[in-house]
Amino acid sequence: MSVFTPVSIAEARALLEHYTLGEVERLEGIAQGVENTNYFLTTTTGEYVLTLFEHIPRADLPFYVGLMDHLAHREVTCPAPMRLDNGQLIAEVNGKPACIVTKLPGAPRARPDAHLCRRAGEILARIHVAAVDYDASLDNWRGREWRESFAQAVKPKLSRAENDLIAAENRYQGIHDDTVLPRGIIHGDYFHDNVLWDDEGAGGVIDFYFACDDALLYDVAIGVNDWCVNPDATLDTARTHAFIEGYQSQRPLEPFERDLWPVMLRRAALRTWLGRLGYNYFPRDSHMTIPKDHEFSRRLLEHHVAHARALGETL
Length: 315
What we know:
The chain is an alpha+beta fold. It has helices at 9-16, 61-72, 114-130, 144-154, 160-174, 216-227, 237-248, 255-259, 261-281, 294-306, 308-311, and strands spanning 24-29, 37-43, 46-52, 91-93, 96-102, 183-186, 195-197, 203-205, 212-215. Helix 4 crosses helix 9 and helix 5 crosses helix 9.
């Protein structure tokens, strides 16, 4: 979340004329994140989040917003999109497509322990199970083609060692067949700051704008690479086991998933590193944003490469 397109109180009032959500009481920009413009929006009927989509193709927006609507009606705690008076879920503000969703209570936990990791794994599996009957699909735009093409785009910005590491990992990923893995809709950005924990310990998931169809195990790897890492960019065994146990309490893993676990951990680390290199070297003009640490992601990938065999024992 960030603010790339400013929205005034007057513009928010004009938007709310098309909803039945009351009058504006407060509008506050959100600095966290790097993709969309986001505001906390408080009205006389409650607290919401206003999102303006800066780069997502308009044709893809019904998938993302519809997914949240689908999950919110299947006992997954996530933002519920608000409908305009004409029944639509997507509006327009300052020339950008936009939506209003409910604001979840709670806040992320900066240092999740094993108990929280187990709960996080359980929640992720519930998302995967609940999305089985969602009747829309979307290819992962940050899949193999993107990883390889972006590696070439960022190549002039990096050292020889960094480029060699990326090229070697792309080759490694290219020789592994992931079509044997169970597939479905994944969150795609299941980091600890995208789960808000309320006072009673219930977790709600936000930021579904990387969701897509892909290997479910890949989503688990994205989560473990964030929830279960140590400050020195290594995996914490206890937290990793807890995350996996929580996940398997809702969706047991299959034999092929166990075999390809190290591959998915490395793929997730590579994608995160490349994405953060992009935010660093090709920044977007934002009024408010907080950048991510791309060096940490590189060190995590290096750790996974060096300990690939041992990683298989964490599943």
